[in-house]
Specification:
Blueprint (H helix, E strand, L loop, with lengths): L1 E3 L3 H13 L4 E7 L2 E8 L2 E7 L3 H12 L16 H12 L4 H20 L5 E6 L15 H20 L10 E4 L16 H4 L6 H8 L3 H14 L2 E4 L7 H13 L4 E5 L3 H11 L5 E5 L6 H7 L3 E5 L7 H9 L9 E5 L4 H10 L3 E4 L4 H11 L20
Parallel strand pairs: 8-9, 8-10, 10-11, 11-12
Antiparallel strand pairs: 1-5, 2-3, 2-5, 3-4, 6-7
């Protein structure tokens, strides 16, 4: 199903159709570079994704509904829909009540829906997913009556937001004083200083949660100071995921991370490898122009190199042979990346001194396997792998 989204009514109809026919899959809303995803299993909402602050949103929901829940990170993959897997695991272990876990799903969905309403000229796509035999609707999923109430609540908030003239403000942004930090008359002092909350480190969602205030009326109060020119809004990056936070702690304890270079004229490939390797505890050095950036390569001396086979200025095999002639990279593992799988390319790569041949696009499991094979020491921040688990693909 693909349709242009003229308003909230179209999105509501799409959800109603999913629930009525008890569909399994995901509804994707795309527009202006944004992507919002709603996962359903037998017509029940499992989880929602979208926007800039996936982890901040998750943290807010946990703080509100499950502040003392210990995440079982060792039994869940750090990729894909890890939030769902953590909730599912909590249900299996009976670590928190279904009401609390359902509250997490609802809180996240509330913010995702609000952000989706502000996406003009978007398209809706329903992507069916084969129902995994080992997966059943967990107690934390939202049934139709609760989801319908939540949807109406968010729609009312959105209309209130628009009516107050706040459409230029994104709740994911953080308010920050231009000059001296005065305390707004509309916000009373408490044990948590308002001055700190308006220091550009807390989003509007954060402040509304901490102050237990309505998002709309809180923002309306701050809107007055924006018009006076004493307050501005700034964008905040997302926080590290729970898995990345654990790896950062391990990094601080165990020392310097291994550096892996990606030499590829395409920035997409370098970014893809970064997304795979950094969560596993490695540092990625991206190089698009190998001849021009040779000094950087020599200075960094990566412990492993991923090298594109076909580049505009120099062929990957030629550059590999060149690196093998240097004392610095004579024994460095060099993995050739290529979109082809021809015998001639493989022979030429072997003759040039390549250690491995890897096809594009690189798959996370294969990349990590190659890295762990060729690096002499174990990754200091490796995550437990090969764990049998229930899975919903992201």
């Amino acid at each position: 199903m693909v349709c242009h989204l003229p308003g909230i009514a179209t999105l509501a109809q799409a959800f109603s159709d999913i629930q009525q026919h008890e569909k399994t899959g995901k509804l994707v809303l795309s527009g202006q570079g944004d992507r919002w995803q709603y996962y359903f299993l037998d017509g029940q909402l499992l989880y929602s994704l979208g926007g800039r602050h996936r982890v901040r949103r998750w943290n807010r929901a946990l703080a509100q509904h499950c502040p003392h829940w210990r995440l079982d990170l060792d039994s869940v993959s750090s990729t894909g829909l890890w939030e769902y897997h953590l909730l599912h695991r909590a249900c299996q272990l009976d670590e928190s009540s279904a009401v609390r876990l359902r509250g997490v799903v609802a809180s996240v969905a509330r913010e995702v829906l609000f952000g989706a309403f502000d996406t003009p000229e978007a398209t809706l796509n329903w992507i069916p997913i084969a129902r995994p035999e080992t997966v059943s609707p967990v107690e934390a999923s939202l049934p139709k009556p609760q989801f319908d109430r939540l949807f109406q609540e968010v729609a009312d908030l959105w209309q209130q937001w628009q009516g107050m003239g706040l459409s230029y403000i994104d709740p994911d942004d953080a308010p920050r004083w231009h000059a001296r930090p005065e305390t707004p008359a509309g916000l009373s002092q408490s044990s948590l200083s308002v001055r700190q909350l308006l220091g550009g480190q807390h989003t509007l969602w954060d402040i509304a949660h901490k102050r237990k205030r309505s998002l709309a009326y809180l923002t309306r109060t701050l809107h007055h100071f924006v018009r006076q020119g004493t307050l501005e809004f700034c964008r905040l990056p997302d926080l590290p995921s729970p898995f990345e936070q654990r790896q950062l702690v391990a990094a601080a304890v165990e020392g310097t991370r291994s550096t892996i270079a990606c030499i590829d004229d395409s920035p997409v490939v370098g970014e893809r490898l970064r997304q795979i390797l950094e969560p596993a505890g490695y540092r990625v050095l991206k190089i698009q122009h190998p001849l021009q950036e040779m000094a950087t390569l020599l200075a960094e001396q990566p412990e492993l190199i991923f090298l594109d086979l076909t580049m505009p200025v120099i062929h990957g095999c030629d550059f590999c042979a060149f690196l093998r002639k240097t004392s610095v990279f004579q024994a460095t593992p060099i993995v050739i990346l290529t979109s082809s799988d021809g015998t001639i390319d493989r022979v030429r790569a072997n003759l040039s001194g390549a250690s491995e041949f890897l096809r594009k696009p690189p798959k996370p499991e294969r990349v990590l396997e190659v890295v762990r094979t060729y690096l002499s020491r174990r990754s200091p921040f490796s995550i437990t792998s090969h764990i049998k688990r229930d899975r919903v693909d992201a």
